[in-house]
Amino acid sequence: MTAVVETEGLTKFYGPKLALDDLALAIRPGEVFGYLGPNGAGKTTTIRLLLDVIRPTSGRATVLGAGTRDARIRARIGYLPGELALEGRVRARAYLDFVADVRGGVNRGRIDELAERLDADLSVPMGRLSKGNKQKVGLIQAFMHEPELLILDEPTTGLDPLVQQEFLSMVREARASGHTVLMSSHVLAEVEHVADRVGIVRSGRMVAVEDVAALRERAVRRVELHFDAPVPREAFEGLPGIRDLTVEGASLRCTVDGRPDALIKAAARFTVVHMVSAEPDLEEIFLTYYSEEEAAHARAGA
């Protein structure tokens, strides 16, 4: 299976500053890839290199099977930049019509459909649009030609929660149509429900690439069980993956690393009347990677 986006040894210096360090990345056809990390980690630099806005110091990248300098791939990409410059007296609708014509023609009904879904008023001059409404126009121009590859840099900035949910639905629909999505974000929750895999970048280096399902399976959960009668602590001591165990009468609290199978089987020997499982979000999981990376750097420097 040929990767839609592939990089090898991709490195970028801005003068003496290292912005991206030896990036190796492969994004599969038809997947949503979440590219995650704090601001300044190297996400936007990666995207600009893929789009040939800037050139690498070393390394290589291919997009849709071609080199990044191949102009023929431009029409097959939908791009939302992190900093969207929409100014002037031109109305948003006229701007989108112009972009549609440049791309060789886009069904105007598609523009209207996306505007309705995102609750975007296209009659307003772009210079008077709020940040959130500019973001909506940017999303429309990225999605309207139904590109094979969507590259979205911080796509939900300025959007209210309802519009964010509609945007995530649009991402799911793109994937269902066989299209590929690269979605950069520092807000982990916004990619949690749509990404198939996530890459974590820190200080220009790829820390990890993981399946979201695998991350969740390894996640740490806080579990609380309530029984109809007191239970013995020894029935739960020594179970694999169970720590921080507290048993007080008919109540049990613990932390579960990974699968809760052993705990559930032990609890099934008694009558459970209530269970609370605090599911971690990806942010909690990823903090583990960052702390481990810090520890590795400290050991290397010792």
Automatic annotation (TrEMBL):
InterPro entries: AAA+_ATPase (IPR003593), ABC_transporter-like_ATP-bd (IPR003439), ABC_transporter-like_CS (IPR017871), ABC_transporter_ATP-binding (IPR050763), P-loop_NTPase (IPR027417)
Keywords: Antibiotic resistance, ATP-binding, Nucleotide-binding, Transport
Chief location of this protein within or outside the cell: membrane
Top-level division of the source organism's lineage: Bacteria
GO biological process, one term: response to antibiotic
Coiled coil: none
Gene3D superfamilies documented for this protein: P-loop containing nucleotide triphosphate hydrolases
Limits of the ABC transporter domain: 5-228
SUPFAM superfamilies named among the record's database cross-references: P-loop containing nucleoside triphosphate hydrolases (SSF52540)
GO molecular function, one term: ATP hydrolysis activity
GO CC terms of this entry: plasma membrane
Protein's cellular compartments: Cell membrane
Topology within the bilayer: Peripheral membrane protein
Family: Belongs to the ABC transporter superfamily.
Protein name (Swiss-Prot/TrEMBL): ABC transporter ATP-binding protein
Source species of the chain: Microbispora oryzae
